[in-house]
Amino acid sequence: MRSCVARVKKECSFYPRPMPRVTEEHRERRRRQILDAARRCFARQGFHQTSMSDLLAESGLSAGAFYGYYRSKSELVAAVADDAVGGVLGLITPLAHRDPPLPVRDFVREALRATDAYAFGPDGVARLAPQVWSEAVRDPVVAAALETRYRQVIDVVAEVVRHDQVAGRIDEQADAAEVAAVLLSTIMGYLLQRLLFASVDADPYAAALAAITGARGGPGTGAVR
């Protein structure tokens, strides 16, 4: 008798079945699906020309599923900015942790190469950079996301600067974070020039930067002062 009741409960639709649990892995896949769709739309049309309808169509998700992850376009723009700079951070962090440490000159060259390949690859991240910077000026949500990542990148570059200070290639009295900020500004400037002018190339750019700063690849070759 009990087995019959159990079978009836299992087979009859009016007995509710437990909802499947949504795993964090599933949620991360959905986030990635939305971010990738948003990045494509933003790179193709710009932030302000992209509507929520465009984003829904590009992602292939229902409105309910979409808004379960991002409640507004502003929130999504901030997430795309965070993701894009996070990609750069993921590229340069291993360079900063090389053993033996890379001199600043070599680090900048390798960072430019890696960033160039990432930013100007099929995902079109480079096209987002000027839009993100512009949006950060007017939207505090985007600005906060960008500043958090900016500080993380500065910390990584400052590690490389400190190694050069110990090696005597950069003045040990200089503030490593401030030097890192200047180096980062040149990388940001490179991205903008590369986006606008096809003739701009990473290696000559890095060599010119080394000539300006005095930072060199070998020991005992002078320090930035």
Automatic annotation (TrEMBL):
<dbReference type="InterPro" id="IPR036271">
    <property type="entry name" value="Tet_transcr_reg_TetR-rel_C_sf"/>
</dbReference>
<protein>
    <submittedName>
        <fullName>AcrR family transcriptional regulator</fullName>
    </submittedName>
</protein>
<dbReference type="GO" id="GO:0003700">
    <property type="term" value="F:DNA-binding transcription factor activity"/>
</dbReference>
<dbReference type="InterPro" id="IPR050109">
    <property type="entry name" value="HTH-type_TetR-like_transc_reg"/>
</dbReference>
<dbReference type="GO" id="GO:0000976">
    <property type="term" value="F:transcription cis-regulatory region binding"/>
</dbReference>
<dbReference type="InterPro" id="IPR001647">
    <property type="entry name" value="HTH_TetR"/>
</dbReference>
<feature type="DNA-binding region" description="H-T-H motif">
    <location>
        <begin position="51"/>
        <end position="70"/>
    </location>
</feature>
<feature type="domain" description="HTH tetR-type">
    <location>
        <begin position="28"/>
        <end position="88"/>
    </location>
</feature>
<dbReference type="Pfam" id="PF00440">
    <property type="entry name" value="TetR_N"/>
</dbReference>
<keyword id="KW-0238">DNA-binding</keyword>
<dbReference type="InterPro" id="IPR009057">
    <property type="entry name" value="Homeodomain-like_sf"/>
</dbReference>
